[in-house]
Write a structure and sequence with these properties.
Blueprint lengths: L1 H17 L20 E8 L4 E4 L1 E3 L16 E6 L2 E9 L4 E5 L9 E7 L6 E6 L5 E13 L5 E10 L7 E12 L2 E9 L10 E2 L5 E4 L7 E8 L9 E13 L1 H16 L17 E16 L2
Parallel strand pairs: 1-17
Antiparallel strand pairs: 1-3, 2-6, 4-5, 4-7, 5-6, 7-8, 9-10, 10-15, 11-12, 11-14, 11-16, 13-14, 16-17
Length: about 300
């Protein structure tokens, strides 16, 4: 009996010793590489734009105490098909570089941005405006889908005619415009968070949908987007209109939106792998993208 008690004491001692703080912690020293500061900016050019705008800042090392500065002495130029297009001018009210233009027509042009700030290498990027997307059969189907909990949901569907012989990428946004019976003067606009049972439809930033044509290149594809019942609740609603915005994205635009959505989803998750947000700026950091878009409406009430 004493032998058994002695064995139990030894086992407990080993267990308690193994649970000490040092057994579950380890200090690893990491040499942080020297950081080379580069210019940083972000701009998206879309069909129909009347204002082109970007900030101009710089990258910071991981241990930097300063906030990202917005330079007011940058030279920001846009080129269209190799020819000078516009100078962007610093706006002190929002610290962006801007230029007002006539509504941008999609001519499938190639745009290039060049940014220069004294003390930095010139940063630049180029993008070609994608061809307009072709859709048909836009339809709202009530109770046509089932969510993860087995509840009925509504489905917005439409068909995409994909151009053959090239990689194509698409983005989807859905908005609702509501006028309530208690307030007929104001229009309430909601941006819906999208999800789908289709494994080809990916989540982008701000709950938007993304789609690559890898699985249906050159064919026709039906897109089905789920809408929760409460988002189309008609109680007290006098008018309800759904607006579907379908965009044709450049590859860089698609990769940026996809990686940014993954970055936000991984934030605060200790089990998620770190995500690097897509960058396409030469000699700098950030993103320069193009997109063409169409908008279609469905009046629900």
């Amino acid at each position: 009996m004493k032998t058994i008690q002695f064995i139990i004491i030894i086992v407990l001692s080993i267990f308690l010793h193994s649970c000490s703080e040092n057994s579950f912690t380890q200090v690893v020293e990491i040499d942080i590489p020297d950081h080379e500061e580069k210019l940083a900016f972000s701009m998206n050019i879309a069909e129909g734009d009347t204002l082109l705008s970007t900030f101009v800042s710089k990258s910071l090392e991981i241990n930097a105490d300063e906030v990202f500065p917005n330079f007011d002495n940058a030279k920001v130029q846009l080129f269209k098909d190799g020819e000078f297009f516009k100078d962007l001018v610093f706006n002190p009210s929002n610290e962006n570089y801007e230029i007002a233009i006539e509504p941008l027509i999609n001519e499938q042009s190639t745009f290039t941005i060049e940014v220069e700030v004294p003390g930095f290498d010139k940063a630049s990027a180029s993008q070609r405006m994608p061809k307009d997307v072709e859709i048909k059969n836009l339809e709202l189907e009530f109770d046509a889908g089932i969510d993860d909990y087995g509840d009925r949901i509504d489905v917005l569907s439409f068909n995409i005619s994909d151009e053959a012989g090239k990689e194509n990428y698409y983005g989807f946004e859905i908005f609702t415009f509501k006028i309530y019976e208690f307030d007929e003067e104001d229009v309430f606009i909601d941006h819906l968070y999208l999800y789908s049972n289709d494994p080809l439809i990916e989540e982008g930033r701000d709950g938007n949908g993304l789609l690559s044509d890898n699985a249906f290149e050159g064919g026709e594809y039906q897109v089905r987007l789920n809408i929760d019942k409460w988002q189309l609740n008609l109680d007290g609603v006098k008018e309800l209109v759904i607006l579907a915005r379908i965009t044709s994205l450049s590859k860089d635009n698609y990769l940026f939106q996809k990686s940014l959505g993954q970055f936000y989803n991984a934030d605060g998750n200790p089990f998620a792998e770190p995500v690097t947000v897509h960058n396409n700026i030469e000699n700098g950091y950030g993103i320069f993208t193009c997109a063409s878009k169409i908008e279609e409406q469905i009046r629900v009430k």
